[in-house]
Write a structure and sequence with these properties.
Elements lengths: L18 E6 L3 H14 L3 E6 L2 H10 L4 E4 L8 H10 L6 E5 L4 H10 L3 E4 L4 H32 L3 E5 L5 E4 L1 H6 L18 H18 L1 E9 L5 E10 L5 E7 L1 H18 L4 E6 L7 E4 L1 H7 L3 H4 L15 H11 L3 E8 L5 E12 L5 E10 L3 H13 L1 H26 L5 H24 L7 E4 H6 L9 E4 L4 E4 L1 H18 L5 E7 L2 E6 L27 H12 L2 E6 L5 E6 L7
Parallel strand pairs: 1-2, 1-3, 3-4, 4-5, 17-19
Antiparallel strand pairs: 6-7, 6-10, 8-9, 9-10, 11-12, 11-15, 13-14, 14-15, 16-18, 19-20, 20-22, 21-22
Length: about 600
């Protein structure tokens, strides 16, 4: 057991050195005299006086006192009756009966009642004795309270704590210690520690662990215990030698920790097996630094994980990037996903063309706390495969949407030409059939090749939109500026058709449309009603439409065509409040 006296134990929350004493006596003059002598005899004392023992009980309930000094014979309550009331109230405070009416009978009653000290009043020399008794009792009470609090802390600790004597026998352990081995304390206290270990592990203790403990005074490491059922328990041990030859043992079950490590290792292996780069960034830290990157991200950028974790995206942003840091900050600020083409500056100083998806992660309050970044090499099999899967999942809808309009135009005008005997109605029929034939040929190639886009060639961007010519109802298309881009001409025509039809369908009568270039792409915008910010992430999903009878597939087709080219498309707001589509990552013929 511990061979340390209470006076030798370290402080346990004993911040103040003064002594607070409650003096109870129905004689005010004697109270004043007692206060004077105590302040002379004790270097740090605070006294509170009370002439009514009933009021004294109320003071004890509301204040903290280190000691009570009470007279015996008082009106209302005697000193022993006050003590009895204190005990019934579960107030733990040293109690001294300091009485002028002394007798063997009163002394016997006082001892039976549980007073800590009994002292008769007399000459002034009695006050020095009283001061000494107060100081001794307070020190003893504080030491006992200290030990009790320490014991309660050990009892409630989650770590297993045990005390083993010089013979190796458990003298004490908390419940957490016994629980490591799936046992009750009563099964282990009084037994030798080797009951919890195999013969091989016991031999290791005697040959390696205990000699080191005796030589250095402590040992810490990992061992293997045995449960009541015989199951092995990996454990972390901390042993500390005591002066009497025994030792204190702290034990922690590592089974749960090992399981957590195994689960994390599995997740790491799964993330490392992904055919693309994946990183997690901390949106709550300045600069939004990396906190995790998988093997794919390392291979794509050429940086080891240690070189990226803690760094910001600026390390990867090359001169040709075009503002990924700004896009990342926008994703954190708005909580919107971002998809764009990015020229990543690698560790060897070169640049690699990639497609980047930034997905903000929010907590339960809706605050963005992390950003998941998925990085793929542009033109890689993983990007092509994902584009193909996206396309296949919406193929039926794309066919329906892209083929239905020219069929409707042809059928309707043919019917009018027949009913009205108006051959001029056949011109739109021929145009629609030509367009339908081109779509069928193109989609047949798609089915055969598994791609929405054939080999891109230099194409004039404006030509895809100028083919619409004059529009009805006062609507118009303005080409602000143009450039030649690498694209599949027919696919670009279909993308333009879907953009224009979307504006005509949703923008209202007289909608104005504009086409222009961006540093790494182009935009298409209108003066219509626009797309609410909350819907912009959803508009490219099949079936999402702002009109009750709309299929919601036009924008799906737009995104599929853009993705198949390796472009990124985002939706924002035009200067007039309409919809604005921005296509980035678009290559020029000179690239």
């Amino acid at each position: 057991m511990l061979s340390v006296s209470p006076s030798e134990m370290p402080p346990f929350g004993m911040g103040r050195g003064d002594i607070s004493v409650l003096l109870v006596d129905d004689e005010p003059d004697l109270l004043e005299l007692t206060v004077g002598f105590l302040e002379r005899e004790l270097t740090a004392v605070e006294t509170t006086t009370c002439t009514d023992p009933t009021e004294a009980l109320g003071l004890l309930r509301t204040g903290a006192y280190d000691c009570v000094v009470s007279d015996y014979e008082m009106p209302g309550l005697t000193g022993l009756e006050l003590l009895d009331a204190i005990q019934e109230a579960d107030l733990e405070v040293p109690f001294i009966l300091f009485t002028g009416k002394g007798s063997e009978e009163i002394a016997s009653q006082a001892i039976s009642a549980g007073v800590d000290e009994y002292l008769q009043k007399g000459g002034t020399e009695k006050y020095a004795v009283l001061a000494n008794k107060i100081e001794t009792l307070v020190k003893k009470h504080r030491a006992e309270s200290q030990v009790q609090r320490a014991f309660l802390a050990i009892e409630s600790a989650q770590e297993g704590i045990g005390i083993i004597d010089a013979d190796g026998v458990y003298q004490y352990m908390n419940e957490a210690y016994a629980a490591v081995y799936n046992r009750e304390r009563s099964e282990l206290v009084g037994r030798h520690w080797d009951v919890l270990y195999s013969a091989e592990e016991t031999e290791r203790f005697y040959e390696d662990i205990l000699p080191e403990l005796e030589a250095t005074g402590s040992w810490r490491g990992v061992s293997t215990g045995i449960t009541k059922e015989g199951r092995e328990v990996p454990e972390r041990l901390v042993l500390t030698q005591m002066a009497d030859g025994g030792h204190v043992c702290i034990v922690q079950d590592l089974t749960e920790e090992d399981e957590m490590k195994a689960e994390l290792a599995l997740k790491d292996r799964a993330l490392d097996s992904l055919p693309f780069g994946l990183a997690i960034l901390d949106a709550t830290a300045e600069g939004v630094p990396f906190v995790y990157v998988n093997t794919g991200f390392e291979e794509l950028t050429g940086y080891e994980a240690d070189a990226l974790v803690g760094a910001t995206w600026e390390r990867l942003e090359g001169e040709a990037d075009g503002g990924t840091v700004a896009e990342l900050e926008r994703a954190v600020r708005t909580g919107e996903t971002v998809a764009r083409s990015v020229a990543v500056a690698t560790a060897d100083g070169t640049s690699v063309d990639t497609v980047l998806d930034l997905s903000p992660v929010t907590n339960e309050t809706g605050t963005v706390v992390n950003v998941v970044a998925v990085l793929r090499r542009r033109g890689s099999k993983s990007v092509a495969a994902e584009a193909s899967l996206d396309w296949l999942s919406g193929l039926a809808g794309v066919l329906s949407h892209d083929l239905k309009t020219p069929l409707t135009v042809a059928r309707g005008n043919a019917e009018l030409a027949q009913d009205l005997d108006d051959t001029s109605r056949l011109d739109p029929v021929h145009s629609a059939l030509d367009r339908l034939e081109a779509l069928i040929d193109d989609l047949s190639n798609v089915m055969a090749q598994g791609s929405l886009v054939e080999e891109p060639r230099p194409v004039d961007l404006a030509a895809a939109f100028r083919s619409w010519g004059d529009l009805e109802d006062g609507s118009s298309i303005e080409v602000v500026d143009t450039r030649r881009v690498l694209a599949d001409e027919r696919a670009l025509d279909r993308l333009a058709d879907n953009l224009v039809k979307n504006s005509l369908e949703h923008g209202g009568e007289g909608v104005r449309m504009r086409v222009g270039t961006l540093p790494d792409g182009f935009y298409f915008e209108d003066t219509g009603a626009g797309i609410p910010a909350a819907e912009r992430d959803r508009v490219f999903k099949p079936g999402v439409s702002s009109k009750s009878n709309g299929t919601g597939l036009g924008l799906v087709s737009i995104r599929q065509i853009a993705t198949a080219h390796g472009w990124s498309v985002t939706v924002t707001e035009s200067a007039e409040g309409g919809a604005r589509f921005e296509f980035t990552g678009v290559r020029e013929p000179s690239e």
